[in-house]
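Postdoc handover notes: sequence design on the structure in folder B. Input C-alpha cells:
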C-alpha cells in the first residue's frame, strides 16, 4: 500500500496497528514498512498463494452478501465447518476492531480459505487499521457491522454476549488483556514512525473506546 493520503500517514498507522494486533495474538501475514525518501509503503505477504499455487479464498461478502453483523460472520464460519478453535480468531478481531477504532469492518474485510484438506479455515486478518475520521460527524464513525445490534457505544456486555453465543472461552480475560495492549498504542505508533499529533489523536480515541467497553 502507498502512503497517498494528504493529511494522514496511513501506511505508518497501518503498520503500527499490525504490530499491536500481533501482540494481541491476532493471526496476520508477516508485514513491514518499506521506507522511501519522503514516504513509506506498507508491505504484507499474500495469504491467497502457497508455494506458488493459488489458495481458494472467499470473503464473507461472497458467501453472504447481506451479512451486516458479527453474528452473521460467526454463523457463516460455523456453517462451513471452520474448526471451533478458530472462532477465537474472529473474536480477537472483533475486540480489536472495537477497541482500536477500525470501523471499516464491512463484510469484504473478513475471509475464509480452504486448506489442502478441503476444509475451510479463518483467513489471516487484513486491513486492520485506525479508520475513525476525527473531523467527521459521529454517525460516519459507526462500525460497518453490528455487534449485539449495535454499531456504536459497544460495551463488554455486547462482546461477551457474542462470546457466549458462539462458545468462546476466557473471553473476559482476553478483553482485559487487549485493553492493556491497545492502551500502549503510543509505543507502537512511535516504532512505526507515526507523528506525535496522530499518536495523540489515536490514543484519545482508544481511551474513549476503552472507557465505553468498561462502562458496564
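Designed sequence:
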Amino acid at each position: 500500500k502507498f502512503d497517498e493520503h494528504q493529511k494522514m500517514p496511513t501506511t505508518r498507522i497501518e503498520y503500527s496497528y499490525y504490530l499491536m494486533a500481533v501482540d494481541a495474538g491476532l493471526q496476520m501475514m508477516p508485514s513491514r514498512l518499506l521506507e522511501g525518501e519522503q514516504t513509506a509503503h506498507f508491505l504484507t505477504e499474500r495469504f491467497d498463494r502457497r508455494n506458488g499455487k493459488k489458495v481458494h479464498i472467499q470473503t464473507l461478502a461472497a458467501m453472504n452478501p447481506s451479512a451486516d453483523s458479527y453474528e452473521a460472520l460467526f454463523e457463516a464460519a460455523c456453517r462451513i465447518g471452520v474448526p471451533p478453535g478458530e472462532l477465537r480468531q474472529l473474536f480477537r478481531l472483533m475486540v480489536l476492531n472495537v477497541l482500536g477504532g477500525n470501523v471499516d469492518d464491512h463484510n469484504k474485510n473478513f475471509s475464509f480459505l480452504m486448506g489442502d484438506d478441503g476444509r475451510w479455515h479463518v483467513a489471516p486478518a487484513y486491513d486492520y487499521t485506525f479508520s475513525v475520521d476525527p473531523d467527521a460527524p459521529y454517525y460516519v464513525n459507526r462500525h460497518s457491522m453490528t455487534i449485539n445490534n449495535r454499531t456504536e457505544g459497544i460495551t463488554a456486555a455486547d462482546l461477551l454476549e457474542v462470546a457466549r453465543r458462539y462458545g468462546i472461552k476466557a473471553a473476559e480475560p482476553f478483553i482485559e488483556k487487549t485493553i492493556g495492549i491497545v492502551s500502549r498504542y503510543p509505543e507502537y505508533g512511535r516504532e512505526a514512525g507515526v507523528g506525535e499529533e496522530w499518536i495523540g489523536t489515536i490514543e484519545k480515541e482508544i481511551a474513549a473506546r476503552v472507557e465505553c467497553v468498561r462502562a458496564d
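Context for whoever picks this up: DSSP finds eight helices and seven strands in the chain. Don't rerun without checking with the PI first.
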